[in-house]
Structures are given as C-alpha cells and as structure tokens.
Amino acid sequence: MEEIVEKLKQEIVKTIAGLVRTSLEESSVEIAKKRGIETGTYNIYPEIDNVIKRYTKFLKFDFDKLVTTPTQKRVQLGSSMLTLVNEDYYESANALEGMVAFCRNANIKEYISFTTRLDSIFFHFHIDESNNPLDPEQIGEAFVDSLRSLPLNANDTLVVYRKFNQIVFHKLGRVLAQANKLLVERDVNPSLVVHTQSRETQLRKRNLNRPVSDPVERAFSDNEQGQTKNNKGGAPQLFALLQKLTHGLAPGEWNTDPQDTKQGGELELAIPVAAMTGQHFGDGLLSDSGLMLVNVQADMVLGGLNVEVLTREQLVEILKGVQNELNDKAEVLSDIDKECLRAKELISQAIKDSASQGAISAIDISCYDIINILTMLYATIATEVSLVEPIKRLICITQVSIIKLALIDENFFNQAEHPARNLLNNVANAGIGWVDLEKLKNDLTYLKMEELIGRFVAEYNGDTELIKGLVKDFKQFQLKQKEGSNETKVTGGNSSEQNQRVENIDAYVTQKIKERISEELKPIVATILLEHYHKFMTILVMREGVGSNSWKHVINTIDELIWTVKSEKVEGDRERLGKVNPKLLKNLAGAFRIAGVEKAIADPLLSQLKEAQEQSFEAAASREITQAAVETVNGVQVLVNDIPINFGDDDTPDKSLSIPETDEFLLQVNKLPLGVWVEFKFSEDRMIPCTLAAKLDTIDKFIFVNRQGVKIVEKSRMGLARELKSGTLKIISEWPLFERAMESVIGALRESMVT
Question: Cα 661 vs. chain centroid, distance in angstroms?
Fold first, then answer.
C-alpha cells in the first residue's frame, strides 16, 4: 500500500506541479501586459519557484497523510485566518469554488475510477472528497495556500485563478487518467468499468446557477440546499434575454431592440424559406426548410413580390390548422426529435400557403423568436433522460399549442407560475421513474395525463382558466391516487437502509470532531461540540457531502471554538479573539438554528461560551475542568481514521432482505439512466436530492453526487431496490421540466455566441 501511494505521489505531483508552473508563467505574462510593464519585473515571476516548492510540499502532504498519522496539520486558509487577511483575497478565494464543482463534474468518470481504485487498497477508512489527494478541492486549496505570501490584489489573483483553471483543472482528466494507469499497472482493480454520462453532457452542467453566497454563509444558513432558490424562467426579462441571445447581441447591447439596428427604414422579418425559391429568387438558392430572417425595405417588396406581414391573430389561426395536421400524423413519426422539427416545418409551410397571389407572407421578429425558442425548448425536452418515450411524446404533442399560447399570452415566458408551465411540469413530474412500458398504456395516471393533454390541445383558445382547471383536476386525481396507494402500500419491512445511512454519517461526524480535539474540553465546549454542533454537522453532510467548500469552513469553526477557550495564550490572542469571535458566535447561532436548538437553550449556551472565553484569559485557578467533562471527551479521543465510513450499503447486508431479479423495483433500478435525479430519505422530515453520476458494474455500485459533484450516497442494486420498496428513495426532477429545458436553451445560446 505504501509503495503504491509513494509511486502515485512522485509521478502525479510532478505532473501537476508542471502544469501549475505553466499557469503561473502565463499569469505573469498576462498581468505584465495588463500593467504595461516588462515581463519578469512584476513580483509574481521571481516568486514562481517558491510557490511551486510550497505547492509541491502541500500536495505531497495530502498523499502522505493517507499512510501515516501526520504530526502536524497543513496550514490552511481557514475562516479564522480569512478574518485577518485582505478582503480582496477572501473574495477571490471564493471564486475557486465554482471551478472545483465544474472540474469534478467534467471529469466524473476518471475521478470516480481513481477514487474507487484508491479506496480499495485501504481497509480502515474510505477515500472521499475530504481526503482524496486528487480531489479538485484539495488541489485548489493547496494552490490558494501556496499563493498566500504573494502581494496580489483581487484582480490579479483572479487572473492567476483563471489560468490555473484553464491549465490545471481543465487538464485534470489527463492527470487522473495517468493516476488510474499507474494503479492498474499495479493490479489495483484492473477490471473496473465505470459508466457515466458523456463528457459533453457533463460540461453542460456549467450552465447551472452557482451559489451566490460565500461558503461560510451557505453552511450556516437555514436554506436547505445552501443555495438560493431556483427562479430560472421566472425573471421579468426572460423573454427579452432570450431574444438578445438568439440574435447574438453582446451583454453591452442588451438595451437595444434587434429592430433598432436596422438602417434606412429596413425591417427584419421572418420569411418561409420555401417561398424564397423559384423564378423570383433563383432555384435552389436556399434548400433548408423552416423560416429565415431577411431585411425588407420600407416599400415592403421583396424579389418583386409584395410582403404581407401576418398579425398575431392570423398566425394563431394558422397554428390551429397545423395542430390538426400534426394530430393526424402523430403515429407516423417514431422519432420524437423529428416530430419537434416537423412542427416548425409545418408552421413554415402553412405561413407560405397563407400568402395571397403574387405576395409573400411574413411574420415579425417577435413571433419568429417565440417559434424558434420554443422549438429549441421542445427539442431539449425530447432528450430528457428522466422521462420514458411515451411521456416525452405526450408532452411534445403540446408544442404547437404552447407556441399559440405564447403568441396570445405575453406572460408565458416571464411568469414562473404560469398555468401552462405548471401543467407541463406536473405531467413531467408524474411521469418520472416509469419503467414498464407495457403496463404504461393501461396505467390510470398515464390515461389521466392523456386526457388532460388532449383537452388542452383541443380546447385551448386563449382562456387560461381552462388550463388552471386542468391542473386542479390533475392534482385532485393524484391526491386520490395517493390516498388509495397509502391504504395498500407494501413496504420493505423496515427502514434498515435509511438507518444504516444515518448511523454511518453519525460515526463520520463523531470521528471528524475527535480529530480536532487535542486537549481536555471545558464542559460548555463539550456540550456544544458533542451534542448540538454534532447534529448540525450531520445535517450538513446530508445536504452537501463531505468535500464541499462549506464543510471545510465548518471544520475550521471547530478549531476556532476550541482555540477561543484553550488554556495556553500568547501575546495578541486577546486582539485576535475580538476579531474572530463575532463571526464565530454568529456561525454557532446559525448551526444551533439548523440543528433545531430552541432559542431559549441556544442563547444561554452562547452566553456561557463567552464566559468561558473570558475565563481562559484569567488565572490558571479559574480554568479548572470538571472530571465529568474530561470523561466525556476521553470517551471520544481515539486514533484518526479508526472508523470505516460508507454512506451506502452495509458491507454485510441481511440476506433475508434480498430481492428476486424479477421484482419490479429491481427492474426499475436496472433501467435508471445516468443523470437521473433522486431523493434519499435521511429522517422523517429530510429528503436529500442527488444525481446518479456513475454505475460501477464490476463491483455493483451506483454513485450519487450533489450539484457540486460531491458524493452523497453509494449503493448496490439490491440496496437501491430496497430503498425504492421501503419508500426511502424517490425519483425526482432536478427542478421543474420547463425551467430545466429553458436553462439548457439559454446555455446553448450563450455557447453558440462564444463559438
């Protein structure tokens, strides 16, 4: 084991250090150019060797601590130190968090392969984000620490971070591949096969909203996910933003209407491509189907033909005919992607056919944008991994009707709770997790969905009350179905999977608290740490995992708390306490609140803590610790890494809980797609969302991570089936279908502007 870790350390640290050197050299050049000075004269260049030495030392330390009990902790930029350094540095350090999350997700296959292989050579503890030397958080944190002595302002630090991201994080997949190769050559799980989503799919996760708060605020906030709520698709200017992105306008031009860019009275209109061929425009000029934007002069003549601009009312009437034609051909096209594009083709053809003799029909740019944007949205829905084909087909039937609705109702895009969006989201949510397609057509819920969608397509004519009634009808139906299900529900017999998961997390948190204790604790600190803060940390592990940026600040808070009451003091500690304590007390109050500690209990605890802090500065006689507290602490002071932690199955599950291969829940697990979102039950009132990141067939493991790519749960097939059966696992959407699809459209439009 030691030989393997040593080989990894020597080879991998050398590779990463080389990448870091390149990133620093390029940063030096960019900063020098920005400042208009000669390369090499700015302070970063002569310091590169020293930075690399510190960085190499930190990386090697992270490898060494896997095989030895370190005699000292690596100096880290913890929250206590952050309170004493320049705020510019603090802000720029937080910028690293988004890079770490993206790096984990982008390299999920190589990362999980390496973590699984490395974990297999250790028997007394598990490898996770908190101790994996190649976790992006560890690599990035070492970089932050190695830069601390450099006199960089926030702008220059961000330049350095960007280069580090481009050169180190963006090439970490190759480093992980090198590490995996070294392990395979040493016969460490050589047959391991890891299935994940494609790298392209993972890269699209970059479009997800990142947390807006810093990790400390997020850790000690009441927000369940530690993030701001998702309001995607509900901003008042959403449609305007989509228009600007569609037309390739840069952010600085977003106050400009696309039509305002035209000169000499020109008007930009959308013309059916099919109408722009033939004797007036030249045969074969354009062969694509659909609509095309053209500039039309003020006289409204194009190619010798009069241009007739359809009103919205006329376009809505045309769409009614298109919907009827699609309904007639719904069973002809088997490819949902083609069906989505077919709708746009039929709309274009219908607009062309509506023209008078000797004229061309056109629509204004706003109508064109609505058709174009919603076509992209439905094409995205057609690729949704959490929905089976019949459900996606059912939703895609509404494409033309939704286009018609968006033309009539200007609030559709900008109103997050628009009835039509609620209808689509409710249908999609109800359709998540279905596997048995043979039974689907006779399922009462599916039949109800068919009925409601059919009514919407056939009856909608501008009246949102109709849609509200459909949504209400569906919710009442679901409520009745749920009540009936509860009466006949068959559970898994017990909640052993859930209990095991909670016990493992509890043990992990206890271990992490133990690691920070180096001397006997005062009674008040023992009560805070081992009781209330322990519960808070358990909740944090449930919602964010053990490798999040927030987790590290929570660990640092333990160090701060213990330091404020330690028996030994040095010069300057009183001043430092004055700077650190307000934030510490605020964070502890937040932790108590999250842990469910009543204010009547929390306030006296904080008051007693402040008294203990003051006593620590007084004579030694006032620092006596009761034997009871000593016994409490001694009861948890054991060696580091002595508790095996696994947030998944028990290594020796009860065979009586095995499930036959033909069981419907096991069949459902077998068909779970990569990227599907689920919720695991951790307590009666706490469900934690995560996504299926990888399937490891050779060792029967399903790995679930949160939005930052941190592992939350690891389960076997049988374990997942038991959880589904007992109701402690539920398949969900990451967020509502419409918002999810719209986010993808926005991301695709932004990416097209860059490329």
Answer: 33
Extents of the domains making up the chain: 2-192, 238-454, 496-634
Within 10 angstroms of residue 114's Cβ, the number of other Cβ atoms is 27
Exposure string for 535-562, b = 16+ CB within 10 A, e = fewer: bbbbbbbbbbbbbbbbbbbbbbbbbbbb
Q: Give 387-418 as a DSSP string.
A: B-HHHHHHHHTTHHHHHHHHHH-TTTTT-TT-
467 or 345: which leads in pLDDT: 467
Let me know if 738 is exposed, middle or buried by CB neighbors in 10 A (0-12, 13-18, 19+): buried
The total number of residues shown for the chain amounts to 755
Burial annotation 662-689 (CB, 10 A radius, 16+ → b, else e): ebebbebbeebebbbbbebbbeeeebbb
- How many other C-beta atoms can be found within 10 angstroms of the C-beta atom of residue 338? 12
Asked if residue 612 has pLDDT above 70, the reply is yes
How far is Cα 565 from Cα 615, in angstroms, rounded to an integer? 8
pLDDT tens per residue, range 665-690: 888 888 887 878 888 887 776 778 88
Backbone φ and ψ for 349, nearest 5 degrees, come out as -65, -40
Q: Which of 80-84, 229-233, 575-579, 598-602 has the lowest mean pLDDT?
A: 80-84
What is the pLDDT confidence band of residue 440, given thresholds at 50, 70 and 90?
confident
- Per DSSP, what are the bridge partners of residue 307? 360
Distance CA 255, CA 243 (A): 11
Bridge partner residues of 715 (DSSP)? 702
Q: 359-364 and 305-309: which strand pairing?
A: parallel
Q: How far apart are CA 450 and CA 427, in angstroms?
A: 10
Q: What is the mean pLDDT of the chain?
A: 76
pTM of the entire predicted model? 0.59
Burial readout 706-718 (b: 16 or more C-beta within 10 A, e: otherwise): bbbbbbbbbbbbb
Per-residue pLDDT of 214-249, as tens digits, reads 556 656 666 544 444 444 444 447 788 888 887 765
Tens-place pLDDT, residues 55-69: 999 999 989 888 875
pLDDT in tens, 348-391: 889 989 988 888 898 988 899 999 899 889 988 888 777 778 88
Judge whether 323 and 457 are in contact, CB under 8 Å: yes
Instruction: Say which DSSP state 432 is in.
Output: B
DSSP 653: -
DSSP one-letter code for 734: S
DSSP codes, 524-592:
HHHHIIIIIIHHHHHHHHHHH-SSSHHHHHHHHHHHHHHHHH-S---TTHHHHHHHHHHHHHHHHHHHH
In tens, the pLDDT along 113-143 reads 999 999 888 877 788 888 899 999 889 888 9
Q: 54-82 burial, b if ≥16 CB within 10 A, otherwise e?
A: bbbebbbbbbbbbeeeeeeeeebbbbbbb
Give, for 656, the enclosing helix (H) or strand (E).
none
**What's the distance, CA 91 to chain centroid?**
21
Residue 321 in this model has a pLDDT that exceeds 60: yes
For residue 392, the tally of other CB atoms under 10 A from its CB is 22
Measured between alpha carbons, how far is 504 from 510 in angstroms, rounded to an integer? Answer: 10
Query: Which residues, in sequence order, are bridge partners of residue 688?
Result: 680
pLDDT of residue 326: 76
